[in-house]
Amino acid sequence: ANPVRRAAKKVTETLQGGTSAPADGIPGRPAPEPPTVERPVEPREPLPPKPDQSGPATVSPTGSPTGADQARMAQSGSHLTNAQGTRLYDTDHSLKAGPRGPVLLQDHHLREKIMHFDHERIPERVVHARGAGAHGVFQSYGTASAVTKAGFLAPDVETPVFVRFSTVVGSRGSADTVRDTRGFATKFYTSEGVFDLVGNNIPVFFIQDAIKFPDVVHAAKPHPDREIPQAQSAHDTFWDFVSLHTEATHHTLFFMGDRGIPRSYRMMEGFGVHTFRLVNAEGRTTLVKFHWKPKLGVHSLVWDEAQLINGNDPDFHRRDLADAIEAGAYPQWELGIQTFPDTPDQTFEGIDLLDPTNIVPEELAPVQPIGLMTLNRNPSNFFAETEQVAFHVGHLVPGIDVTDDPLLAGRLFSYLDTQITRLGGPNFPQLPINRPHAPVNDMLRDGMHQTAVHRGVAPYQPNSLDGGCPFTAGADMGAYIETPVTVPEGRKVREAPESFSDHFSQPRRFWLSMSPVEREHIIGAYTFELGKCYEEAIRVRTLQVLANIDPELCSRVADGLGLPAPEPTVPLADVEPSPALSQVGGTWPVDGRVIGVLTGPDGDLEGVHAVRDAVLEAGMIPLVVAPTGGTVGTGDHALTAQRSHVTARSIEFDAVMLAGPPAAGPDAPGATDGKGAPGAAPAAPDPRVVQLLQEAFRHGKAIAAWAGGEAALASAGVPADAPGVVVTDSGPSALDQVRTLLASHRVWERFTSGG
Ligand code: HDD
């Protein structure tokens, strides 16, 4: 059906027909290109029509080229060609000496095609290999202008961005919803050059000094002998390391908490982690920490759900992000800063700002919003954009400078270095996704994969042969000038400052800030992870770490492991909780939430139509589940089922609604048509529906039933009067209550003992 393929086939047939030139061509010249065929963009049921997906934008909102033209050039013209632009008439058969004869070595098309294929894969990222990206725009509020001269943070400036979210430990093909930290890296294509904010969804890090990065990563990666487990921290080497290296305690506690299993990339915070130094137009400096706050709130999966997802839909987060953007439910984050005076000791309220295992509670230093990011376009090509994007903490713009955080210092080396292996040479900034939108006039030359054709004869400074060009700029012309901070004099030492040695006060603050249900999740996570370790010594040592955080945490995990709980070896820190760390207790927008509506031929299809329309109206996504695929019902109320009992699983839905009597199970009489035998007692619902309801209930999801749908609840052991279970007389009224429940993310009352 593809018109371009049809056109190509026509030319192929003409050539094979033996004429020396196509009928519409001039002998000796290639046939003219057929007119460009616009491919229709069809909306995908049940999502609303997608926005323009016609390809990468060639011009940014500021009018500068995005570099995307180049990407299109690789696909210009409508005829299939080889890499040199010569048209091909057949790409399905090798050149042979007769149809059954040997393949000829002279088949240059075969050799080129296989050679390129053999080299299609590049090394995956050594960490953060698995990820998903999206384009968007950052709108500055201008509120940061007092503390930074960065042009993109001036009032009303819009800057194109590309964001890549990732897991850390797993390989490129690993599952999305593993327990792990998530990367949150943003590339701002500013008019003063590229600024990368390479952060995570957790505000602290495992190590205080970059020299420990290979250690923590080797410990977290699969065991080197058998290369298992994939994308997991629940194994001996990880817990061996973090129990010995107690500065990892805070980060470990964070990702044993709910932030280790986010519901969606759209519902994660992002943190720059380190303290950065901002410089304003007068040269005054301010220390800051960067925060991304999702408009949808910070929400997580529950562990049982996360594990089911990894089997059922390993691409869950990737799909969720792309589907939401395609449906027009653009995710948004506010960028904010915590600001601290740039004092010589670089501490705030006794907290060492150079120690990346510390947070500064928001109650002590509120996060001040400085702009809004909206992700509104999916990548056109995963490899060219998401895989080839290269972030670097040293991609800075005037007004944003680094501090002496020793973790940041090592990163300033590592990110450039890794691209040489991963992207095959030093010219990765020329790849379309990495190209700055500001004019580039560097004196970097040659190297692997050089695509620029430089002019002039004097790529050196100073020169007279190229007229002295290009010229260096001063501060008034937007040059990047390092802040002339005073460096403390000292001896050369391999040591950490004394202030880096408290590894338990901040973890204790985190624990005390959690709600009861979040604490249950943390206890469950430690019990699971340590229960997967073979070495008892590692479990015992970790219990000692937990004893130094909190006795209840330690004793509950010890109970689960069947081990005695040790006494703390340090005095328990006297710290105030930080309520901002808890994810439970608020209400948030429901945009992009997925509602599964279960029905069958006997269901209230009119009601389902009304619910479906109202769900779409509310910016959410309805998925109709019926016994089989295809159409449910007949006449005006007929509906298309997006999922059948074979393809549906609870994990896809944030809430489940039952519209009418449940379809009978496969063993029930007359079950094939979804109806019970005439006159027979109501048949037991399909066991897959029962399972779906049980999972949704166990995972704290809203469940609603009307028009007889409630009959399935009893079979699933779901009490009709349980919290978050709605039984009502019409679909729209059921949806109203489901919306209210969804605003709190989950029915928290259901989690009395973990989940
Ligand atoms: Fe890193 C990738 C975030 C410490 C070395 N890191 C990488 C990515 C993120 C982070 C989000 C993926 C970027 C992408 O999507 O392409 N890394 C962090 C944070 C850290 C951190 C928030 C601590 C605050 N990283 C860190 C250290 C080192 C590295 C201490 C080395 C000394 N990180 C790398 C790397 C990666 C990387 C090896 C792998 C692929 C890449 O850089 O481009 O260079």
Automatic annotation (TrEMBL):
Classification of source organism: Bacteria, Bacillati, Actinomycetota, Actinomycetes, Kitasatosporales
Name this polypeptide is given: Catalase
InterPro entries per UniProt: Catalase, Catalase_AS, Catalase_clade2, Catalase_clade2_helical, Catalase_core, Catalase_haem_BS, Catalase_immune_responsive, Catalase_large_C
Keyword list, A-Z: Heme, Hydrogen peroxide, Iron, Metal-binding, Oxidoreductase, Peroxidase
Family indicated by similarity: Belongs to the catalase family. HPII subfamily.
Record has Metal-binding as a keyword: yes
Catalytic activity, EC: 1.11.1.6
Membrane-crossing segments per the record: none
Entry superkingdom: Bacteria
Catalyzed chemical reaction(s): 2 H2O2 = O2 + 2 H2O
Cofactor(s) recorded in Swiss-Prot or TrEMBL: heme
Domain called Catalase core: residue spans: 81-469
Chain spans, region Disordered: 1-83, 660-684
Job description of the protein: Decomposes hydrogen peroxide into water and oxygen; serves to protect cells from the toxic effects of hydrogen peroxide.
Polar residues: bias regions: 55-83
Alphabetical list of Pfam families matching this protein: Catalase, Catalase-rel, Catalase_C
Gene name as annotated: catB
